[in-house]
Description:
Layout lengths: L1 E3 L7 H10 L3 E3 L2 E6 L3 E3 L2 E2 H4 L5 H15 L7 E7 L14 H10 L10 H7 L2 H6 L5 E6 L8 E5 L10 E2 L7 E7 L4 H19 L9 H5 L33 E3 L16 E3 L9 H10 L3 E6 L2 E4 L1 H5 L6
Parallel strand pairs: 3-6, 3-7, 7-10, 8-9
Antiparallel strand pairs: 1-2, 4-5, 8-10, 11-12, 13-14
Amino acid sequence: xxxxxxxxxxxEKFRMIQTQIQPQxxxxxxxxxIVHDPxxxxxxxxxxxxxxxxxxxLAQQYIADMQTASHGLVQYQVVNIIDAPWFPIKIxxxxxxxxxxxxxxxxGRMHQPDGLDYxxxxxxxxxxxxxxxxxxxxxxxxxxxxxxxxxxxMIGPGAFWCNAPAIETPNATKRFVMMGFNYExxxxxxxxxxxxxxxxxxxxxxASPPQSRNLWHAFSQHEHTHPQAAACGNVHFAPNSRAxxxxxxxxxxxxxxxxxxxxxxxxxxxxxxxDCQEWGNGDMRAHHVWWFQHLPHTPTMLDGVWGDxxxxxxxxxxxx
Length: 320
């Protein structure tokens, strides 16, 4: 759901005007949250038994981080939480019971193939029906490790790669993204899931413009691949990273990261020396928030692409 800043929910007439003048927007996606957190006993859930993270607390941390990272533009609304205290069905039909899962986890021998049966999941929760009834804009699943799900997957007509093979189907009334969050891990990993979603969607957005004007390519440059021409890097590589996840590198490099701070007004910003102090000295969560904060977020257009990249990353239906 897209809402003009400082405005009530738009009428259909206002939506038409909005398309022409493009005021700054904020995004309030309605989230269907489904939690696979089986009971170990009458009073204890799986996440408590293993001392993993509380899914509901993770969701609140994620919502707050996304609002901060997007300069207040993204304000997720969890409109429904479904308690699904069982393990998801695997692609070969296998389904853990609680005792099996605990034993397999302790022995380090998890069921293979690990993949999830997405069609069974969609049917189980009537996701196409809920979408048609406009009950959600995206779905978040919180599951234990080895649930077999992708970090994100896009579903619907014209769906495309979103860090996973798309489920392209006319059975959905529009495209939507299903996020898979592992509650053994913290909110930093949840942000990483979204970061890979950004990478996939922006690559699709810029699939057509000439490479010389591919701003996504320019934004994601880092020292390892573009010596002395780093910008903001990508989810795994900070501007000065030498390897995946090298977010704590103290070697200063020249970066044009300030060029993206207030796009397009800051396009003439000069390069400067940066190191890991800029993005949290190696902290995953801090790096990802820093990276998101540099995504262009102003309602201007260049080469047919809006300078507010959040609109594409939040609503895949805006991507041609």
